Amino acid sequence: MQRRYFEFLYNEICVALNRRISRHDLWLLVWHSVGDPDELNQDQIQVFLENALYRLLKEEGAILSPRARRRLERRILAFDPQHPAPEEWIGGIAVAQNSPL
């Protein structure tokens, strides 16, 4: 279940940048910054955002305004892995509608 933190982090960064980034590069950066991406918790996410997000954005050549960066950080920190994210709700509805009864 903790892998959801990494997936959510990846998705939110891609949406904020309006383009896809390398999942592998993000994985390695998280690994070297805070530990195993499969076992992330909110404290590790906080450390990553404080120490490595800027480096990632710089490496990607992405320039986010301070306001956009704060918004990204707030969205990531507000994530609760105990509750489905909006895209997971929509995905679940789509799967349910297409499944045979």
Structure, described:
The protein is mainly alpha-helical and 101 residues long. The chain has one domain. It has six helices and no strands. It has helices at residues 3-17, 23-34, 42-51, 53-59, 66-77, 86-98. Helix 1 (3-17) runs antiparallel to helix 5. The radius of gyration is 15 Å and the shape is globular. The two termini are 28 Å apart. The mean pLDDT is 85.
Secondary structure layout:
Layout: H1 3-17, H2 23-34, H3 42-51, H4 53-59, H5 66-77, H6 86-98
Helix pairs in contact: 1-5
Kindly list the characteristics that best describe this protein:
101 residues, mainly alpha, globular
Brief summary:
The chain is mostly helical and 101 residues long.
Question: Measured on Cα atoms, how large is the radius of gyration?
Answer: 15 Å
As for the number of domains, it is 1
Distance between the termini: 28 Å
Low-confidence stretches: none
- SSE order: HHHHHH
Oligomer: single chain
Content-based structural category: mainly alpha
